[in-house]
Structure formats: C-alpha cells, structure tokens
Amino acid sequence: MNIENQICSSVIAAIKELYGQDVPGNMVQLQKTKSTFEGNLTLVVFPFLKISRKKPEDTAQEIGEYLAANCKAVSSFNVVKGFLNLVVAPAAWVGLLNDIHADGKFGEKTADENSPLVMIEYSSPNTNKPLHLGHVRNNLLGWSLAKIMEANGNKVVKTNIVNDRGIHICKSMLAWLKWGNGETPETSGKKGDHLIGDYYVAFDKHYREEIAQLKTQYMAEGMDDEAATEKAKAEAPLIKEAHEMLVKWEHNDPEVRALWQKMNNWVYAGFDETYKTLGVSFDKIYYESDTYLEGKAKVEEGLSKGLFFRKDDNSVWADLTDEGLDQKLLLRSDGTSVYMTQDIGTANMRFRDFPIDKMIYVVGNEQNYHFQVLSILLDRLGFKWGKELVHFSYGMVELPNGKMKSREGTVVDADDLVATMIEDARKTSDELGKFDDMTEEEKQEIARVVGLGALKYFILKVDARKNMLFNPEESIDFNGNTGPFIQYTYARIRSIMRKAEAQGITIPAALADDAPLNEKETDLIQKLNDFGAAVAQAGIDYSPSGIANYCYELTKQFNQFYHDYSILNAEDDTQKTVRLVLAANVAKIIKNGMELLGIEVPERM
C-alpha cells in the first residue's frame, strides 16, 4: 500500500475512533505540503468539522496525534489553521522506493479480459499526396494516446481510415495519365506517395492555367470577375475529365479501377515507410472505398425507420434542430454520399468487427462541428458508444515560415522534416563532441533516436488543443524542456550504472528499512511516486502533454539532485547504494514515460 493510501486508511480510522462516525475515502483530501511549511503531505481538515464539532485547529491536532501514534507512515505533524501537515516517516519513504524498484511498470495498469475496449482512429490520410507536418502531429498524438490508454488498463485497437476515393484522387490519376509517360516509383527513384503527390500538384497547375484562359475569354464576353471565375472553374476541360473519371470509378470501369488500384498501392508503400520511420502502426485499416456504400445502406435504413427525411430533390437529410443545430445532408440528390455518410459506414463496420466500449477520433479542430453531428447521428442509429464518442480535437501546427498549401506544392513534407531533424541532431552532437568514441553506425542510430525524440517531444509537450509553432532549432536543444535534454539525462544515468557495474557494485533487490535518506532524496521518491497519478490524469484528460511535462519535471529534479550530491563518490557504501537505486528508478520512469510518448531513449549519447 502506498503512503497516501496508508495515511488515508488511518485518517478514516481516526475519525471513527475520535468522533464515532464512518466516512468515505473521498472525504480524505491529501495534497503536497506547500514549500513554506514543514511536511510532505497535508490533510485538509475542514470536511470533518461537522463531525468533530470542534475548531479546525483542535480537530487537526487530534487527528495528527492519532496518526503519529497509529500510522507507521507518519513520523510527526504540525497544524496551520485548518491544515494538518504530515511528515512522512523515513522507513515509509524507503518502503515506497522499494515498491517502485520492484515494479518494472510502476504507475501503469495492465488490461485483463474484463477491461474496456477503446478504439482510437488517427492518421486518416488521402491517397493523392504524401503525409505532411499536420499528419505528423496527428500520428504522434494518436500513437501516444493509445499507449496512455493502455497504461490505464484499457484494451486498445489502433485504427486508420484512408480517404482513397473521390474527385481529388481522380485528379492525380488523370494527371499521371496525361503527363506521366508511364513513370513509376522504381523508374523515378521517388517514394510512391511523393510521386502521386507531384501529379496532384501538376493537375492543379494546369487546371489554374485553364481557368485563367477561360476567365479572360468570359470577361471579354461581358461577364463580371466573380461570375467569370466561377464559370471558368466549372467549364475547364481538366475538371470535367476528372469528374468523368470519377463517374467511371463509381460504375466500376475496369481500366479506371485498375489504374486506381495501381497508384494507390504505390502510395500505401510510401505511407508504410513513413509510418515505420515515425514508429507508429495500426491494428486495423479501413478504406473509404469500402465504407461509403455501407454508409449509404445505413442511411437508407435510418430513412425507413423515420430517423431521417427525404426532400423533393431526392436528397436525404437529418433534422438536428431539436439538438440546437441545423439540417445535415446525408445523401445528395443523385444518391452519392458525403463525408458524414462515409463516417457512419466506417462506424458500422468497426462496431461489427470489435466490441467497442469507447471510440476516440484524433482529428483537427476544424472538424469540431462534424463530430458533434456524427455523435448525434450514431446515437440515433443505435451505436451504444455514439453519444459518448470522443473527438480528440487538436490545433494546427505550423513552421516559422508559415502555413502549408498542399495543392501549390509547398507542403511541409513529413519525410523531409524527419530527415532534417536527424541531420540536425547529428550536427549538434558532432559540435558538442558527444560522438568522439563511437562507430559511424552508432552515431547514425543515436542521431535518429535524438532527432525523432526532439520532433516528437516538441510536438507532444504542447496542449493538443492549441495551435502550435514547431521550431526545429529549439527542439534539438540539449537544455531546457526538450526531448534531447530528457534523453541525455537518461543516458547519463545509464553511464553511471555501467561505471558502478565496472566497480563491482551490485544494486540490491530492496533497501533496508533504516537506509538513510536526505530531504532531496525523499523529494525525488515522492516525484517518482507521482508517475502513477500523471498516467491516470493523462488518461482522463486524453493528454500526452501531461506525460511530457511530468518527464521534464522529473528530469529537472534529478539533475538538481545530481548537481548537489555525488552518486559514485558518496560518503559511504550505504549512501552510494541508496542513490544508485534511486537513480536507476529515475531512469526507469523516464524510459517508461517517454515510451508513452513513442520516444526512444539511448543508452549513451
């Protein structure tokens, strides 16, 4: 039983003995003692005054005396108004450190057969372009959220929905047919997603040229600027051809379908490479080309049950006015689906495939309204998790040089970004002389781990709901609130452990109850113990940033301790052993915490 639980149980017993009344555990409010007072934990006494019918100071004094006499975890106390400040007994701190030391996954829970199943959707790429910086934030948040939910004892299914159909896909296909000359990833030396992305950009370039020519023609015929622009966009030969191709795709034209399959496969191979580099994966991938028909069927079923209505033009709508919203289109007048229809179909397939208890969608905040509506529609259609679906809504991410514009070819490519981060990590490490005694292979591996760690940590440490500016130069710093700072501290501790092993020092399975501890050491044990609370809170808030900030605070606190106290040159062997156990567990929690963020930690740097 940890220290807080021991004290909580003893407080409940004290209230029963002193005042003759049982109280629930949630009445016992323990918090960290403020640094201006003596103590480690503070009990808020005010909830018990109606029971004690005494002044706050007298009630606190009586409870304090009971705890000092009956709770082994408390050595002394002091009272400040209605607050009881408790000093934790040294043996309790040692016992807590031993508990942490004995548990390789301290602070985390393991799922069992009765655990709820949480499905998390993230990534959601289009097959007409490579992954970009926005996808990087999405993938890192989704992966970390999955790890955090697992650490809270949930079964987790990681899923992806690929947008592999529609007019935007046909644009890339048409451009490749017109200007590709049979180019393939093999003949071009490009990743498949990059190759297809180039043709998406090429389509847009030629399309804009056609629009400009037609607009000039229409304006010469007397149309105003706005009308000429709109007509030119609709009448441009390229966009008409793309729409014709989409119709052929919808009607299963064998040539169009074969081309679509071939080009999508090139893209998937490219995506897989990027996912592997980022260290993310999925348990199940769904494709909109499969789900949109299922969505249409589900909407038709809802229509027959009176859940939706059909307008005179044959389009199908949901009336959401009772929920304070408007009417939502579900099927166009020609029977074709919209994104909402596809999401309903995807949900139906997922619900059939898995016994989902909670569904979390990791999607940008520009889709807040979409998911508000989807939740209502899924609930109407009878999905038990529909009403409680979670839209993990995150803000946009930009680089210092501005926004990304895919169609203009100025997108911040994920592969280029990762390569640059690894290259910067290599340069920084070379300049700091950290690679002097390593092989080239070791240097490259550490540069990969540090570069990716810098990227991931910088993105994940920010509250996901906020828009953020990603600064590559700041992220690679070995000081401050960065991934490399935390990784370097882990590597430093591992170096200390190797030196201890070389000196023949063995770390024991447990410390003796009377092992000596100073105030900084007990503070560090208390910080290690906070990891479980940080994991639990991150699961409640869906907040990777909570884990990132905990890792930084732990790292900062250890570095201050290490600055003040030697480990291998401690005054005596007992003290040295205590500090080695403490350092080993700081390294363990750093490693486990960073793993929840999808970040590796190197054994040396």
Biggest sheet strand line-up: 7-6-5-11-12
Structural class: alpha/beta
Q: If you consult CATH, what is the topology of the domain at 422-596?
A: Isoleucyl-tRNA Synthetase, Domain 1
Characterize the largest beta sheet: strand count, sense, and whether it forms a barrel.
5 strands, parallel
* Outline: globular
Which percent range fits the helix content? 55-70%
What is the CATH class designation of the domain at 422-596?
Mainly Alpha
Number of helices: 21
The average pLDDT is 94
Radius of gyration: 30 Å
Distance between the termini: 37 Å
Question: Low-confidence runs (pLDDT<50, min 5 residues)?
Answer: 403-408
Strand content: 5-15%
CATH architecture grouping of the domain at 422-596: Orthogonal Bundle
| Secondary structure tally: strands | 14
CATH superfamily of the domain at 422-596: Isoleucyl-tRNA Synthetase, Domain 1
